[in-house]
């Protein structure tokens, strides 16, 4: 049974000088490392952002992890701290190309095991479209984007134009929550991650549905939401009920939210067997892909264990663990020597 993890992050070994040169700021993201196995620190300028493991920047350590965990292929995306959406578009384009070059170099260590996603300067639709087209020619398997851009969600005209371009280019799109709610109520106990991430993803999915964006976007668009789709699958009944009862909710959407679950996929990073069962019931087994959030501490330590130990049927497990990802990301394009997907 092929195992493909579609939600895994990389932070290239960008030094502070390179970050400063590309971003034009002393506060840009960079990676401070030492020789220890877990001796890395994601930095934002002089501020320590998060301690990290060596697998985040060292592909040899990553592949050793995958061997130990029984993962055949991992789809790699940059850490959201690297998005660069606050940069001037010209700088952002150069920044994204640099990050993408690092991702290609990282994946080249084991091209049969590591499938990279590019990042783009989403603040400029023209530059984002050019970057994703270039990246697909270079061998990327899709693009990794944040779930919003300031106050604009993915149903914004410029952002739906970008998504339509991705469909035209055959680029799969992984949407990750970022720029989470802040303030005293979210600052405690990592609540920005525990509650804010789920709410952000839920908001983005509903925005695409209720605005009618899915009616305008090509059906060929391959859209994947991280972290199990956030709160959406578990509150879908509430959204449907509101659509049926309130003109305000259904003003721009000709169908209730449950009508659109075949327009996107989600990963399996929900960490609970009951939640996984509900996720599969809501989305369908063919639209749930194994995701671990590796190698961060809040990710699944034993990648795929939740799915393997679940009450899903053998056919559903095979689909979630790898079959769906092979089709979604076109992993038949991996070089010779890759696992038989």
UniProtKB/TrEMBL annotation:
Q: Which major enzyme category is it? A: lyase
Pfam families xref list:
Amidohydro_2 (PF04909)
Q: In which pathway does it act?
A: Secondary metabolite metabolism; quinolate metabolism
Q: Its Enzyme Commission number? A: 4.1.1.45
Q: Which UniProt keywords apply?
A: Decarboxylase, Lyase, Metal-binding, Zinc
Matches recorded under InterPro entries: ACMSD, Amidohydro-rel, Metal_Hydrolase
Q: Where is the Amidohydrolase-related domain?
A: 4-331
Under SUPFAM superfamilies, the record lists:
Metallo-dependent hydrolases
Q: How does it assemble?
A: Monomer.
What the record says about family reads:
Belongs to the metallo-dependent hydrolases superfamily. ACMSD family.
Q: What is this protein called?
A: 2-amino-3-carboxymuconate-6-semialdehyde decarboxylase
Q: Which organism is it from?
A: Streptomyces hydrogenans
């Amino acid at each position: 049974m092929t195992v493909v993890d579609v939600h895994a992050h990389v932070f290239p070994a960008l030094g502070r000088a390179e970050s400063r040169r590309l971003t034009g700021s002393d506060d840009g993201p960079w990676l401070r490392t030492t020789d220890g196995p877990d001796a890395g620190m994601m930095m934002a300028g002089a501020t320590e952002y998060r301690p990290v493991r060596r697998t985040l920047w060292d592909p040899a350590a990553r592949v050793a992890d995958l061997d130990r965990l029984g993962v055949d292929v991992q789809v790699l995306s940059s850490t959201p701290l690297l998005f660069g959406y606050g940069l001037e578009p010209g700088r952002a384009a150069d920044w994204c190309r640099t990050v993408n070059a690092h991702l290609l170099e990282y994946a080249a260590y084991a091209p049969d095991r590591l499938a990279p996603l590019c990042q783009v300067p989403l603040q400029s639709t023209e530059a984002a479209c050019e970057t994703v087209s270039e990246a697909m020619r270079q061998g990327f398997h899709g693009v990794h984007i944040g779930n919003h851009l300031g106050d604009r969600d993915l149903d914004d005209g410029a952002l739906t134009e970008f998504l339509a371009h991705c469909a035209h280019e055959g680029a799969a799109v992984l949407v990750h929550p970022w720029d989470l709610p802040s303030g005293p109520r979210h600052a405690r106990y990592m609540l920005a991650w525990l509650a804010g991430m789920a709410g952000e993803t839920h908001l983005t999915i509903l925005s695409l549905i209720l605005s009618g964006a899915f009616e305008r976007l090509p059906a060929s668009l391959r859209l994947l939401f991280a972290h199990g789709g956030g709160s959406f699958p578990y509150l879908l009944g509430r959204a449907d009920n509101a659509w049926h009862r309130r003109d305000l909710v259904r003003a721009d959407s000709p169908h209730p939210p449950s009508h659109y679950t075949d327009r996107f996929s989600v990963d399996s990073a929900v960490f609970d067997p009951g939640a996984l069962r509900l996720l599969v019931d809501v989305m369908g087994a063919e639209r749930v892909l194994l995701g671990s959030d590796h190698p961060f501490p809040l990710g699944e330590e034993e990648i795929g264990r939740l799915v393997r130990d679940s009450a899903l049927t053998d056919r559903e497990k095979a689909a979630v663990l790898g079959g769906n990802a092979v089709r979604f990301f076109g992993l038949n394009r991996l070089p010779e020597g890759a696992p038989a997907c």
